[in-house]
Amino acid sequence: MNTYSDKDIGKLNDFLQNEIAAVETYNQCIEKSTGSATLPSLVELRQSHANRARLLKDRIVALGGEPAEGSGVWGGFAKLVEGGAKAFGEKAALAALEEGEDKGLHDYRDEIDDLSDPTRQFIASMILPQQQGSDDTMSRMIR
Question: What is the pTM of this model?
Answer without folding.
Answer: 0.89
